[in-house]
Design goal:
124 residues; mainly alpha; 2 domains; post-AAA+ oligomerization domain-like
């Protein structure tokens, strides 16, 4: 977007340098298909699994009846915890423990992988 905006603002032929910089950056940036693989796995589960309701513990209990039914029971608000992270399941029971995104050891994903290990341990 920055390259496109530079071309828009400065025009051609000077804008060619911004486009060349963007092309070199993209050509030499670390590549990964981890997100594509994760998204494909999610799509497959959406097609193959039943349409389960949202787990009660993460539903918003906006009425007394909903509270009595267990909506929001034992919900942990991540922002109330160190690092704004808390161990908590968000998936329906049939997908419990399912892991979709598996970051590679390339580029920024290496740092993401380390963060996930720090948060989830070997669990994820």
């Amino acid at each position: 977007m920055a390259a496109q905006q530079a071309v828009h603002f400065v025009g051609m032929p000077e804008g060619c340098l911004a486009l060349a910089e963007a092309a070199v950056y993209l050509a030499t940036a670390p590549k990964s298909n981890a997100l594509y693989a994760a998204y494909s796995a999610v799509e497959e589960d959406v097609r193959k699994t039943k349409n389960e309701p949202v787990p009660l513990n993460i539903r918003n209990p906006v009425t007394g009846l909903m509270q009595e039914m267990g909506y929001g029971k034992e919900y942990k608000y991540a922002h109330d915890f160190p690092g704004h992270f808390v161990l908590q399941d968000y998936l329906p029971p049939s997908l419990k423990g399912k892991r979709y995104y598996r970051p590679s050891d390339q580029g920024w994903e290496k740092e993401i992988a380390e963060r996930l290990r720090k948060w989830w341990g070997e669990r994820k």
